[in-house]
Amino acid sequence: MDRHYFFRWALLALAVTAPGIIVTEALGHAGATVPMKGSDKSPRLQSSQGRQVLGKDLVKPEECNKTTTEDKPVMTVTIDEKSLQAKFTCGNAFASGTVPEIGTSPRKCCKDAACPSENEVDISNILDVDGKAELSNHTVTVTVAKVPDNKRGEKFYYKCKGSDNTCLVAVALPSSLPDNECAIDRTVELSLSAPQTTVEFKCNGELVTTPIEVKTGASCTGGQATNKLLQLDDSKAQNHTYTLSVAKLPNATTKLCYKCVYEGVPQLSDTTKTETRTCSVMVTVAKATPESSETSTSTAPTSAASIAYKSLGGVTLGAISLSALAAN
């Protein structure tokens, strides 16, 4: 039997029975094209939780409707990682305005819970990035330029004013993230070298699956990588988790960059408009050494294609020698 004929039919059978597979190395076969993910021709992978939720604005913001006592916030709202916004509503009994007065001082906030007028400062004084608040139909929307890593967990405050009382709201930045997790404008640094040839990272946006080869500098710019050095396993994408592995270390240290894309992020200058923001996942693959070459030689796939495929018990990375099957 012609081995090229068998090869094409074997690939077709795998695609039908395991649509989640990703062919990750160039096939030793004329006319083969990689990478491909089942019938998905998009270069991006996106988990259901990673999508911008179009109906998000339909969710009613939490309402501040109790009188503050002892300078304790009635409620805390947290800036969202993907929209860079937090919202709250001043209840009917506290609809006489805000402290600071958002209509005239949108970039001001209170730096502590006591919130006297002398403690009103620009949001940038607290976060080191710009921010502003907008008031519409008793709903306050706070937008920040980004979430600085060194300011995560910081809080600032607003008061909803009643006739003779107030309702205090704390606005918090999200808590700290692991080093391997993406966020808007963040750079995640990963490295692969013997014996650690597998690494995980998280992207809660859309992952562009074709990496960029970084020739110089530390920015995620350059042309698409032409080699298939890294294998990408997206079997945990529902949890925003992706796994990179290398079967054989390169002859020279190589730096690749994956982009995690966030669509529909409100612009700070005009929150009625949106923009696309990114996180960079920089992966440095160390060059092979005599010791690592021995290890990779003993474990590297010997088949024409290295395929990530799903099994009943979980995800297994295996090498299937289609040419060997054809010979049988």
TrEMBL record:
Give the InterPro entries listed for this entry: SRS_dom, SRS_dom_sf
According to the UniProt record, one GO cellular component term is:
membrane
The protein's superkingdom reads Eukaryota
Q: Which stretches make up the SRS domain?
A: 64-171, 186-285
The record's Pfam families line, in alphabetical order, gives: SAG (PF04092)
Name of the molecule in the record: SRS domain-containing protein
Q: Which Gene3D superfamilies match?
A: SRS domain
